[in-house]
């Protein structure tokens, strides 16, 4: 958590194409460096990604675009 005192929304997406824990670590680091994202965790076994974000800075559409740009098809569940 970077900004525990700002409003956050938590959302979960289904993510496809993760083939190793290296992908998970890389993606979590990239997401955590993104403005508006407070926390990101990936459940590799279930193919789920949970992101806590500040809705004043980023929205779900941008989150999905961000993950998909990394090469992983993502959809809201
Ligand atoms: Cu990998």
Q: pLDDT below 50 for ≥5 consecutive residues: which ranges? A: none
Please trace the helix and strand order, writing H or E for each element: EHEEHE
Taken together, the total number of domains comes to 1
CATH architecture: 2-Layer Sandwich
How do the strands of the widest beta sheet line up side by side?
2-3-1-4
Strand residues, percent: 25-35%
Shape: globular
DSSP, total strands: 4
Q: For the terminal residues, how far apart are their CA atoms? A: 23 Å
Radius of gyration: 12 Å
CATH topology: Alpha-Beta Plaits
Which CATH first-tier class would you pick?
A: Alpha Beta
Largest sheet: 4 strands, antiparallel
Could you tell me the mean pLDDT? 91
Structural class: alpha+beta
Description:
By secondary structure, the protein is α+β, with helices and mostly antiparallel strands. The protein has a single domain, classed as Alpha-Beta Plaits. It is 29% helix and 30% strand. It has a four-stranded antiparallel beta sheet with strand order 2-3-1-4. Strand 2 and strand 3 form a beta hairpin. The protein is globular. It binds copper (II) ion (CU). Copper (II) ion binds at residues 19-20, 22-23.
List the defining traits of the structure above.
2 helices, 77 residues, alpha+beta, Alpha-Beta Plaits, binds copper (II) ion
